[in-house]
């Protein structure tokens, strides 16, 4: 797991071939806008989150974000424990995001 600043997160994301963007906020938060191309998986729906995360391809690199960086940091730690190749947490989350949203 790596905690990355917005600049580093965007740079690493753009230079990673097998990158998957993962939004771990709630459905109410998704309605406020998401980073383009992000897959949505509610971290607070813990049983579903764990079931889904265990089914994901551990050989890919995941760029994870939430509202502030707290839940996404926890999600990245879980992914590390499960043996994922790469989990990159966006420090500051959507609260500090300066990029595009949809």
Major pleated sheet? 5 strands, parallel
User: What is the correct CATH architecture?
Assistant: 3-Layer(aba) Sandwich
Task: Give the count of structural domains.
Answer: 1
CATH fold naming: Oxidized Rhodanese, domain 1
Strand order of the largest sheet: 1-5-4-2-3
Unreliable spans are none
Q: What kind of oligomer do you see? A: single chain
Question: What's the total number of strands?
Answer: 5
What's the gyration radius in Å?
12 Å
Distance between the termini: 26 Å
Integer average pLDDT: 96
Q: What is the helix/strand order?
A: EHEHEHEHE
Range of strand content: 15-25%
Helix content: 25-40%
Overall, the morphology is globular
DSSP summary: helix tally: 4
**What is the SS-derived class?**
alpha/beta
The H-level CATH homologous superfamily, spelled out, is Rhodanese-like domain
CATH class: Alpha Beta
Describe the structure.
With 102 residues, the protein is α/β, with parallel strands linked by helices. The protein has one domain (2-95): Oxidized Rhodanese, domain 1, CATH 3.40.250.10. It has helices at residues 6-14, 27-30, 46-55, 70-81, and strands at residues 2-4, 19-23, 39-40, 61-65, 86-90. It has a five-stranded parallel beta sheet. It starts with a strand and ends in a 12-residue tail after the last strand. The model has no long low-confidence stretch (mean pLDDT 96).
